[in-house]
Structures are given as structure tokens and as C-alpha cells.
Amino acid sequence: MGTTYESDVVAWADEQAQLVRAGRFELLDLEHIAEEIEDVGKSEQRELASRMAVLMTHLLKWQFQPERQSASWQRTIKEQRKSLGFHIKQVPSLKSKLGDSDWLDAIWSDAVTMAINETGMGEFPELCPWLIEDILSNDWLPTSLH
């Protein structure tokens, strides 16, 4: 044993797990273990944010490009909602993010940027016009503006 965190994080992680299982706590790299544990939470939050942004992007496209609405978009919306629900069920502490207006504003900004890039359109609402309950509801789609 003796792989450093910086030289090979996977080998390091395996060694740290072996040390824990062997009860050799005095040999643990506690600082890097703490960082890795924090990163797990950040990774889960990034996953939630990414899925939410993809969902909102498709809802924007649905609302602002009704002539292009397709089964593919509906499938993506359904899949993202299902994945979000599963993710929150697996990591219940993430549910608080859905009520965090600053977090939702950041996700909205990402979704608008993706919608602009995907549609070539430049005019989308500055603030999210939808309720989080609607966004996550399997039975809801935004009304077309045209």
C-alpha cells in the first residue's frame, strides 16, 4: 500500500477501502477521504441539476416550438421526470433543492441556454414561468404560445 491520491485515485480508493476493512484507521488519508465523501454529494447534485435542465429545455422547446413537437420530445420529458423521481427517491436529501429558488434560477438559466443553442431562438422568459409541481408532473405539458 502507498499509492497517493494524486498519482492514481482509483488505486488509492481501493487501498483506503482495504485499510478501513482491516481496521487500520491510523493509516487512512483522512483529508482526501473527506474530500471524496463531499464529492459524492456534489456529484448527486450535479446529476439532479443536469436532469432538471434537460427536462426544462424540452418543456421550453415544447412550448415555444409547437410545430416541432414530437414523440421523441415527449419521451425525453417522460424519461427525465422518471429519472428525477427515482433519483430523489434514492437520495431524499436532494428534494430540498427543488424548493431552493437560487438553485432553480441557475437551472433555469442552463435550460434557457440549452434551448437557445438547440433551437436558434433567442427569446425565452427570464424567469421560469412554471411551478415545480407542474414541471415534475407526468400529466403536464406547457401550453403552446402560438
Largest sheet: none
Q: Return the string of H and E elements.
A: HHHHH
Coarse structural class? mainly alpha
Shape: elongated
The whole-angstrom Rg is 20 Å
What is the mean pLDDT?
A: 94
Q: Give the oligomeric state.
A: single chain
Number of separate helices: 5
Helicity range: 55-70%
Q: Please indicate the percent range of residues in DSSP E strands (runs of 2 or more).
A: under 5%
Distance between the termini: 65 Å
**Stretches where pLDDT falls below 50 for ≥5 residues?**
none
Based on DSSP secondary structure assignment, what is the total number of beta strands?
0
Question: What does this molecule look like?
Answer:
With 146 residues, this protein is mostly helical. It has a domain at 44-136. It is built from five helices and no strands. It has helices spanning 9-21, 30-64, 71-90, 101-119, 132-136. The longest helix has 35 residues, at 30-64. The mean pLDDT is 94.
Helix and strand topology:
Blueprint: H1 9-21, H2 30-64, H3 71-90, H4 101-119, H5 132-136
Helix pairs in contact: 2-3, 2-4
Quick tags:
mainly alpha; 146 residues; single chain; elongated
In short:
This protein is mostly helical and 146 residues long. It has helices spanning 9-21, 30-64, 71-90, 101-119, 132-136.
